[in-house]
Amino acid sequence: MNTPRQRHNPNRPGRTPGTGPYGEITKVMRIPESVVDQVATILESCKERTFLNKTKGSVMLPAENPTPASIPLYSHRIPAGFPSPADDYIDQRISLDQHLIPHRESTFFVRAVGNSMIDAGIFDGDLLVVDKSIEPVHGHIVIAVIDGELTVKRLIQQNGETILRPANARFKDIVLKEGQELSVWGVVTSTIKTLV
Amino acid sequence: MPVALVDCNNFYISCERLFNPKLEGKPIVVLSNNDGCAVSRSNEVKALGIKMGEPWFKMEQMARQHGIIAFSSNYTLYGDISSRVMATLATFTPRQEIYSIDESFLDLDGFPAHTLQDYGQKIRRTVKRNIGIPVCVGIASTKTLAKLANHCAKKDLAGNDGVCDLGQLDEAQRRALFQSLPVGEIWGIGRKISESLNQLGIETVEQLRAADPDFIRKRFSVVVERTVRELNDIACIELEQAGTPRQQILVSRSFGRSVVTLDDLKESVTYFTTRAAEKLRKDGSVANSVCVFIRTNPFKVNEPQYERSVVVPLMQSSDDTAMLVKAALFGLKHIYLPGYQYKKSGVMLMGLQPKGVTQGNLFDEIPISDEKSDSRMKVIDSINRKMGKDTIAFAGSGTRRSWAMRRERMSPNYTTRWDELVRAG
């Protein structure tokens, strides 16, 4: 004759909770009758990867396709030694963009072509930073429109005359005639040369 | 609440002229995708009587005769110039609604009424000088009236120098102006409504303004009623601020030539889905279904016609290109029939929600947040942003792309490519 199993509570019938085939306390879930078949199929298809087929023994097998769990790396260092004396003086790194482009929306890049401005340090292929928001004045190097073409020249306004002056003795001044309106496309604020 | 509508004049044309001043004063058109029809016309072309949407093959004869210069649409360039214009306009108001690529509403609440005309001039001058794009400004108490004021500024019917502030007109001047404007010029009054209104004897803006709003609602809709109220200075349409998330994302194109095989269609659908997914991630949204459609060329009436679309729901909302492409191709396979000359395909991502608030699926095996997929997409997006579109692409989108759009008259990407910068001698 088998000895009856020990009951945890003599007033409650059944097995001691947690001693069944699953090795832990189980729970009843309600689902609508119409989806019972569906749920059964889904559970069946999941069986491979769940613990349902690895019961009986209480040995937990490692998952076949484990989801990697990321563990945070401790980012706080334990203070040891001296703190960096520079800590309070950290500044943003300087940015060439910020330096060369104070007005983002109105700044355009233009490629210089030819030799008409070499004495101003502008050579064929140089990159010109052009700001359209700047009001052109005497002495500025500007991009101007002459006969539908863009040209880079120094703007000279003196004695009531407007001249677009090349920075190369081999080129001639462009003198605006009476009634001819000067059309400045933008003011050159820097030129960038790539050396290497 | 005064509000301004700023609208760029012949925007695409102005962008082309900005970097190619030779085009100033010449008749030019910008053509739609596949160089089909005119989508932007210079004033010189308008004067020749060429209508919006006129197909290129119809005007080619005229083009030769009058020296019309045609460009393919260079949306990379127009997009960049548009963002510069919009950012510049943003400095003039605390609240801006970007209404389209070339139009923006600006809230001018709190500005003294008598200064608005000058302020409009300042806006106009600044955009012209800083970016080089001419704009017109319409100012009024409601969005509908601001649109109308803009139209008047552009056609020089009221205001001066491209700026029209309806607030400067007294009641008699306003009535006279509105009596001269056909009702079809009003924002939201399309051809159909306009015809029905005409039948009721409402032909001018002034007549619609004087109409009984309740009658209009019963006869038409609450939308037209709102228009009547807006014409009477009662603001009914709020300014929509940036950041209103999109409800769906559509990417579709006509092919440069017709396409017969499933393989070519698969390439195009993969490519369009990739584009749509990029936009989706930029918005920070996920989609819960993908709609795919294909169709033949309806203009070739002698060829057999076929058109179909299908919506493929996703098990789990996603922003992963691979997942979306899979769904799109699954749908394509279901609707594809051999033996037709396909001219267009498209992909629409639907059921968009902000990422991170998606409803989980009870029996789902896919976790709601998939870190691997997220970081994969992030890497692809950042490489493509840095090194140019399609540096990394899904192999399925093809390398030949024989179906790609025809864009034979495209201007250089003056502002987005180092090797295509504008030159000055």
Which terms summarize this structure?
heterodimer; A: 196 residues; mainly beta; Umud Fragment, subunit A; 2 helices; 7 strands; B: 425 residues; alpha+beta; MutS, DNA mismatch repair protein, domain I; Alpha-Beta Plaits; Dna Ligase, domain 1; 3 domains; five-stranded mixed beta sheet; five-stranded antiparallel beta sheet; globular
Range of helix content of chain B: 25-40%
The count of helical stretches of chain A stands at: 2
Q: What do the pLDDT scores of chain B average to?
A: 89
CATH topology of the largest domain in chain B: Alpha-Beta Plaits
Tell me the domain tally of chain B: 3
Distance between the termini of chain A: 96 Å
Mean pLDDT of chain A: 79
Give a quick account of the main beta sheet of chain A: strands, pairing sense, barrel closure. Answer: 7 strands, antiparallel
Count of helical regions of chain B = 14
The CATH architecture of the domain at 103-192 in chain A can be named as Ribbon
The largest chain-to-chain contact, stated as pair and per-chain residue counts, equals: A-B, 30 and 22 residues
Amount of beta strand of chain B: 15-25%
Can you tell me about this structure?
The complex is a heterodimer of chains A (196) and B (425). Chain A contains two helices and seven strands. Chain A is mostly beta strands and 196 residues long. Among the domains of chain A are: 18-58, no CATH class; 103-192, Umud Fragment, subunit A, CATH 2.10.109. In chain A, strand 5 and strand 6 (174-175) form a beta hairpin. The relative contact order of chain A is 0.11. With 425 residues, chain B is of the alpha+beta class. Helix content of chain B is 38%, strand content 20%. Chain B has 14 helices and 14 strands. Chain B has helices at residues 11-19, 43-47, 56-66, 75-90, 116-130, 143-154, 171-179, 191-199, 205-209, 213-219, 222-231, 262-283, 321-335, 371-387, and strands at 3-8, 28-31, 38-41, 69-72, 96-100, 103-107, 135-140, 163-165, 249-259, 285-296, 307-318, 342-350, 353-354, 422-424. The longest helix of chain B is centred in the middle third of the chain and has 22 residues, at 262-283. Chain B starts with a strand and ends with a strand. The relative contact order of chain B is 0.11. The mean pLDDT of chain B is 89. The A-B interface holds A 39, 42, 46, 67, 70, 103-106, 108-114, 116, 127-128, 132-133, 143, 145, 148-152, 183, 185 and B 21-24, 84, 87-88, 129-132, 363, 365, 367, 371, 414-415, 421-425. Strand 1 of chain A pairs parallel with strand 14 (422-424) of chain B, so a sheet runs across the interface.
